Amino acid sequence: MIRILTENAEFQLLEALRHNRRKREQRGEFLIEGVQAITRALAVEWPVRAALVPAVAQRSPWAEDCLTRVDTVIEVRADLFARLTARDEPPELMLLGRIPVPDLAAVPHQSDGVVVVLDRPGNPGNLGTIIRTSDALGASGVLLSGHGAHLYDPQTVRASVGSLFALPVVPVPSNEALIDWVAQWRTKAPVTVYATDEHGEIPLSGSVVLSRPAVILLGSERTGLSTALAALADVSLAIPMAGSASSLNVAVAAGIVLHHVMSSLGSHGC
Known about the structure:
By secondary structure, the chain is of the alpha/beta class. The chain folds into 2 domains: 2-98, CATH 3.30.1330.30; 104-263, 3-Layer(aba) Sandwich (Alpha/beta knot), CATH 3.40.1280. It is built from 10 helices and 12 strands. It has a 7-stranded parallel sheet with strand order 8-7-6-11-9-12-10, sandwiched between helices. A 5-stranded mixed sheet has the order 1-4-3-5-2. Strand 3, helix 4 (61-68) and strand 4 (73-76) form a beta-alpha-beta unit. The radius of gyration is 20 Å and the shape is elongated.
């Protein structure tokens, strides 16, 4: 067992993983916390460098079992360990996960699949929630385009509640790569690309049937979709609203549109 009892260089690097996107990407590592996230990561054998535990602390049977499945355990002085999490009560353990090399091939071209594309997501909490919702509603995967919230930010990981490890979630290197990926899918199936827009040409209603396979494009709340991705859409969808709000939180909009697509029967419709 490795022990960190002072604010040494190793601890400073661990602390940087919580706050610093650049450090996460340089080291290719990120922090995983939360019972469901850790359980799911270990279940799918996500690459893990080490488990982090507070020194001189009792552990539950769940935590002890987790530690048997990790090669390296790093014991961190309790007050230092608490600085690695935003929780009021520090968890029993955290994992130091490895960031995989992005691979678009990990998101399958399913004949009846639905893939969610987020363009420059602005908030890690929203990003994690959309990943969780996509997993819950049966999407084939999630793609991230442009520079936005970091996929491996602790807030993203926490908000995904383990779905980050259950669903293919891949950053794409460029809009061109995403456009090519959609074109490849279209050589195999009649894919429809839907964009969300408050001024969309088709208001969602119970009578509207959306076809699959499909790509759902979601723009940032501040600037919407980039020009290149907006041009990729076949249909723009609007979510009718009865109240005074002019727009919806992007995670809420994602859930509404994804549920509508997944609830549509067959391959006919818009």
